[in-house]
Amino acid sequence: MFILSLFFYYNPNISKMAPASTTDSDSYSSSTTQPTEMSTMEYYDMKGEIMVIPQSPHHGGTRRRDSDTDSDKDLVITSLTESLQIHKEILERLNTEKEVFIADLRKERDEEQHSIQKEKEEAQSALEAQLDQYRRLETAYSSLVKELEAKKEEYKRMESSFYAHVKSIRPTDDDLSTIQYEITHLANQMNNFCMGLKSKMDRSGGSEYILERWPMTRAYFLQSSQQPSSDNSNKPKPSSEEDDNTTTGTSTIEQPRLETWIITMFTEKLVTEALTKDIFDQPIHIGVSVNETFKQLNTWIDERNTDWASRLRQQVSALVVRQAGEKEQAAIDQSLHSLVDRLLDELCHIYPRVKDGPQQRKKLEAICARAAKLNLAMKGQDIRVFCGSIEEGVALFDSTTMKPMTKCEPEGTVVFVVSPPFIALDPKDEDHGFVIPAKVYCTLNTPPSIISATTALSSSLLPSQQQPLSSPSIVSEK
C-alpha cells in the first residue's frame, strides 16, 4: 500500500485512466447486436501521458475483451513496476544524499565541537596562566607592601633619630624658611617702631645729631639749602656787631633742618647698626664671655676643615641656649639691657620724650630679644647665615642684593646703608639659601664737596694706595 501511495503521489494523472467506453458492462455482452464501430481505450505510459490504442471493430467478443483486459493489466503492472523501480532509485539516491548530508553535518559539527573544545582548553590554559601570574603578583605585592611598611618604620626611626640629632646640635628648631620669615618680621617691626616715634620728633635737635654723627648727610641732603639764592645776593652784609653776635652764638640765623622722612630713615639706620654690631656680628652671642676665644678657634678650624668649624659653631650655640649657666645667662641679659639703654640714650637726641613711659622701652626690648633669638637660629644652621657688608660711597646699586629707600632712584652709588643684607650661602649648592636685600639710599651725582674731599685725600696718598671712586657693588661678610 505504501508503494502504491507513492506511485499515485508521483503520478497524479493515473486517476484519469478510464475504460474505452462509457457504457455499462452489459454493453460488452451485446456487442454483436450493436453496430460495429472503431473504439478506443486510453492508457498511461510510465511518464503519466495518455496513450490511445485504436481497436478494430472486428475485434470484439469475450475473448478479445479478456485479452485486452490482460494486456491492460500487464501494461499497468509493467508501468507500476517501472515506476516503483524509478521511485526506488529516487529513494535510494535521496537516502544516499541524506546519509552524505548527515555525515557532512556530523563532520562539521564534530569539527566545530573540536574547535570549540580546543578554544575552551586554550582559554582555560590562558586563564590558569593568568591566575598563576595573578597569584605571583599578589604574593610579590604583599611582600613589597610588607617591605614598604618595614622601610617606613625604619624611615620614621631614622627621621626621629635625625631630628633628635639635629635638635641636640641646633640651638633652635628653625630652618632657613623660618629664619627668612623672622628676618623680614624683625625689619618690619623696626620700621614700625621708627615710624611710631614721629610724634615725639625734635627736627632741630634730631637734624643736629644726625649731621654730627653722619657728616656726609650735609652734603647729600642740605646741599641745596646752602647754595646762595638770587634774593639773598642783594641783601646788605651784616655789620660788625652782627658778626660778633654770630660768633658768640647769639645769632638768630635758623639752623639747618632735615626733612622728617630723612630723620626717620636715619633712626632706623641707627637701631639697625646697633643690632648688627652687638648681636649679629658677634662670634657666638651677645654677652658671652668666650666670643673672642671662639672666634680665634673657629677661624683656625675653618682654615683646615669647614665642616668641623660649622659643627663646632652649632654645638657652642646650642650649649649657650641650653646650658649657659647662671653667670653666663646673667651676662647675656645684662648685655641686652645695656643695649636697650644705649639705644634709648641715642634716640633721646632725636626724640626727647622717648623715655616718657615704659612703652617705647618695651618695644625696644622686644626688638632686641627677637634679634637675639634670631641670631642663635642663624648660628645654628648647617650653612653660614650672616649680615653682609656694603661699603658706603663706593658700592654701586645692585638689585639682587639691595632695594632702594623711598625718594631715591634705584641706580647710582650707595651712599647710605639703612639695613644690611642677610645672606644664607651654601658653597655646595647655589640653589640652597636666600638673600634678603639691604635697604640703601643711592644717588647718581656726587656732591662737589665730596669730590673735592676725595681729590685731596687721593693726592695725599701714594699711587699704590689710591683706589677708584666707584666700583661694582661690594657685599661681603664682616
Walk me through what this model shows.
This protein is of the alpha+beta class and 478 residues long. 59% of the residues lie in helices and 10% in strands. It contains 15 helices and 9 strands. The protein has a 4-stranded antiparallel sheet with strand order 7-6-3-9, covered by helices on one side. The protein has a 3-stranded mixed sheet with strand order 4-8-5. A hairpin with a 5-residue loop joins strand 1 and strand 2. Helix 1 packs across helix 3 and helix 4 runs antiparallel to helix 14. The longest helix has 109 residues. Keywords: Coiled coil.
Class per helix and strand makeup: alpha+beta
End-to-end Cα distance, whole Å, is 136 Å
Number of strands: 9
Strand order of the largest sheet: 7-6-3-9
Major β-sheet profile: 4 strands, antiparallel
What's the helix count? 15
Poorly predicted ranges (pLDDT <50, ≥5 residues)? 14-41, 224-252, 451-474
Question: What does the overall shape look like?
Answer: rod-shaped
- Our estimate of the beta-strand percent is 5-15%
Q: Radius of gyration from the CA trace?
A: 64 Å
Secondary-structure element series:
HHEEHHHHHHHHHHHHEEEEEEHE
How much helical structure, as a percent, in the residues? Answer: 55-70%
Domains (count): 2
Estimate the mean pLDDT confidence: 76
Coiled coil: 77-161
Region (Disordered): 223-253
Biased composition (Low complexity): 223-237
Keywords: Coiled coil
